[in-house]
């Protein structure tokens, strides 16, 4: 029999929001826990999740993940969860206050970057404090990415 610790997935990325780094300038990142039901965890372990259109919102003394999609777990018939329900993020009070201050005073946005399982097998969300990019900033990012790609090709071929 294999040791119990070897069965867990270590830092397995379940869902990633790749467009967020293009649309937003990432200022700071936080690791937050997710308050999930059992069927949501099982659905995540299957690798089915979508956070491309989701965002985090400050309501009361809590921060919520809104519009994330975790599909229903097929084997859980009537005890299933609602796929697009709001999910509470588990953060320290100090972190919540810091994020709330940045959102209200500086006009920043909370953008989820990825959902993954940590070493202990817990579902975590990488949350970014971000500022939206303007169109010309996006063009500049794209030009820089193209130039780096072209430069690496030239170095490979030696020309």
UniProtKB/TrEMBL annotation:
Top-rank lineage group of the source organism: Bacteria
SUPFAM superfamilies membership: Small protein B (SmpB) (SSF74982)
Composition-biased stretches (Basic residues): 150-159
One Pfam family hit: SmpB
Keywords on record: Cytoplasm, RNA-binding
GO CC, one annotated term: cytosol
UniProt keyword Amino-acid biosynthesis present: no
Biased composition (Basic and acidic residues): 137-149
Region entry Disordered, spans: 134-159
Cross-referenced InterPro entries: SmpB, SsrA-bd_prot, SsrA-bd_prot_CS
GO biological process: trans-translation; trans-translation-dependent protein tagging
Principal subcellular localization: cytoplasm
Cellular location(s): Cytoplasm
Keyword presence, RNA-binding: yes
GO molecular function, one term: RNA binding
PANTHER family reported in the protein's UniProt record: SSRA-BINDING PROTEIN, TMRNA-BINDING COMPONENT OF TRANS-TRANSLATION TAGGING COMPLEX
Function: Required for rescue of stalled ribosomes mediated by trans-translation. Binds to transfer-messenger RNA (tmRNA), required for stable association of tmRNA with ribosomes. tmRNA and SmpB together mimic tRNA shape, replacing the anticodon stem-loop with SmpB. tmRNA is encoded by the ssrA gene; the 2 termini fold to resemble tRNA(Ala) and it encodes a 'tag peptide', a short internal open reading frame. During trans-translation Ala-aminoacylated tmRNA acts like a tRNA, entering the A-site of stalled ribosomes, displacing the stalled mRNA.
Family, similarity comment: Belongs to the SmpB family.
Entry-linked NCBIfam families: PRK05422.1, smpB
Name assigned to this protein: SsrA-binding protein
